[in-house]
Structure formats: C-alpha cells, structure tokens
Amino acid sequence: MSVLIYTETENGKFKKSAFELASYGRAIADQMGVELIAVSFNQQESSPLGSYGVDRVIQINDPSLENFTAHQYAINLIEIAQTRGAKLVILSSSANAKYLAPLLAVSLSAGYASNVVGLPESIAPLMVKRSCFTNKAFNTCTLDNEINIIGLSNNSYGVSENPKEIVVEEKPASLSETSFKVENIEKASGEVSIADADVVVSGGRGLKGPENWHLIEELASTLGAATACSKPVSDMGWRPHSEHVGQTGKPVASNLYIAIGVSGAIQHLAGINSSKVKVVINNDPEAPFFKAADYGVVGDAFEVVPELIEKLKAFKNS
Ligand SMILES: Cc1cc2nc3c(=O)[nH]c(=O)nc-3n(C[C@H](O)[C@H](O)[C@H](O)COP(=O)(O)OP(=O)(O)OC[C@H]3O[C@@H](n4cnc5c(N)ncnc54)[C@H](O)[C@@H]3O)c2cc1C
How far apart are the first and last CA of the chain? Predict the structure, then answer.
C-alpha cells in the first residue's frame, strides 16, 4: 500500500507545490503506516524530495513527455497507482493537476476532492475540508472509495522538512499512440509564475497605462515577486492575459499580494481570497479593496511605489 504524489516541475526544477505535497503526503502516509511514493516526469535530480519525507521516487524520463499532456501523464500515473497499491493519490491545485484528476478518478474508480485545505479529519472514510465558492466558504466532504484523490490547495499546508533515505527508480514511459504530443509551449514572460509565487505584485487601471508598468516590474523584481494585473488591464492589452487574476483569470495563493491601483471588485477578489497577506495601495480611501486588505496605503501609486522600492532596496543593502 502507498500514498502517491505527482510532483510537478518547471524548467527542470521542482515547483514549490511538489515539496508541499511531499510534506502533506508524509503526514498522511505516517497516519496510514504506508510508503510515500512520488512520481516525476523528466526530472533527473529527484533527491531534494527526500528532504520532505518522500520514501521513493519513480522517475519517468522520456523526450515525448517533455511537455505536459494530461492523457499521457495520466496513463503513467494510473499504472503506478495500480501496481504500487496506492490508496490515496495527492495532486496540487495547478491547472495541469486539475486536468489530470478526473482522468485518474475515472480510471481508478476513485473519489476526488479538489481544493482541499488541510489534513484529513479522518482517513477511513476519508473526510477532508475543502474551500468552495471562490474561497468564501468551506465544506467537509467524505469519500469512501477504495482509492481516493486529493487536490491540495496551493500554500494551504506549507512545507516541513523530514529527511528520508530516498530510493530512486526509473520507469520506462507508457505511451498511448493515439494521444497527441505537445510540441511547444509559449510561456508567460514573467520571471516567476503567478501560480507558484510567494509574492505577487499586481497592477490595475489606476496605473493609467502600460508605460507605467516599470513601477510594478521594479517592485516585483526587488521582492522576487511575480507580476499580475486586473482584467481590464489585460483586456486593454497593457499586459498579457496570462497575468490576469480573478474569477475569470488565474487564482493566486501567495503569501503576500500587493495590489496597486486595483479597485477590489468582487470578481478580482475571487481570485486572491486564498492569498495570506494583502496589501493595497490606492488613492481612494473608499476603494472596496481596503475592506479585504490586511494593510492599506491611501496614496498616489506614482508617489508611494517609487518610495517603497527605494526603501526596500535600502533595506536589502543594509
Ligand atoms: C463576469 C465578470 C467577470 C470579471 N472577472 C474579472 C476578473 O477575473 N478579474 C478582474 O480583475 N476583474 C474582473 N472583472 C471586472 C471587475 O468587475 C472590475 O471591473 C475590474 O476588476 C476593475 O479593474 P481595476 O480595479 O483595475 O480598475 P478600476 O475599477 O478602474 O479601478 C482602478 C483603481 O485605481 C485607483 N487609482 C486610480 N488612480 C490611482 C493612483 N494614481 N494611485 C493609486 N490608485 C489609483 C482607483 O481609485 C480605483 O480604485 C469581471 C467583471 C465581470 C462582469
């Protein structure tokens, strides 16, 4: 028996969510008294997972799986889940993981709970707390299938070190001939992706135009943050759609979300509810975002942001 996690990578490195799944999976595997197995695709160096409690890594290295293809990845995960007696499969809440989960659930006759926010309240039957209604509410759901799948909300559990002697295995890829192959993916331009970022700096229409985005970019680069924006900003072509955050855009679950010149419309807030600390800079004290903010600065972005950058740089250099 085992607990299986799918560990995602980007540019040859494990995403932060991989270590979070390992930490979370370790805690559950200990409760169940079973092995924690991680599956990685095209990742030669899997040993870092051992620091977070993984017992065994199954590496699948195949050039045709270089880019994520839900069908092909699912075939391999299903095979491993079946041969290793997985009782629980844990995925992240990334878009790719959300493609995979239903494919796995159907093939494994498994129950699936998405957006899970903590350790199970009970293991058999599996009872988990999940967020719903764009993180405005929680529900507890019970899954009593033989095998179950958890989609863990990013940043909801955190990472905890738990060093293990890790066993690394290579598995030849199982490939379906009928499935298409993703040849190329055009990546968003930002250095840090929004979904994985610890810190996100976001700009709204209050920035007045794309020519002022150097303020957002400079603040983001000072903080090692990803850049994001409101919907109108991407609709007007000031920023790429990949940066659009909210109900109709990307969800953000960062530790720090800094919103500059964003009014805080309900559709924008829907995408950032699971971010931990929200800082708002807006010149209108009545802007709705202040009601959702942990810290707020009422002021002109064109004065406040340069000063903030200067102070942060001075602090970093001190
Ligand atoms: C079905 C539907 C789905 C939607 N989905 C999304 C979504 O996913 N994401 C999203 O973001 N929106 C979404 N919207 C749009 C949303 O309702 C708002 O219109 C939008 O979020 C407003 O964007 P904004 O805050 O950048 O602009 P505005 O509402 O124009 O706000 C600009 C803010 O900047 C402030 N400001 C102006 N000048 C300055 C200055 N110099 N310094 C500091 N602050 C300044 C203003 O006080 C104001 O609060 C959706 C709408 C609908 C109907």
Answer: 52
Band the pLDDT of 103: cuts 50, 70, 90: very high
The single-letter code of the amino acid at 68 is F
25, pLDDT greater than 80:
yes
Element (H, E) at 301: helix 301-317
Cβ–Cβ < 8 Å for 154, 253: yes
Q: Ligand 1: which residues within 6 Å by Cβ?
A: 204-206, 230-233, 245-249, 261-263, 265, 267-268, 271, 281-284, 287, 300-302
Two tokens at 149?
Answer: 């799948």
Residue ranges in 52-181 assigned as alpha helix (H): 70-83, 95-108
Substitution site in 202, 263, 290 for ligand 1 pocket (most atoms within 8 Å of beta carbon): 263
Quote the pTM value.
0.80
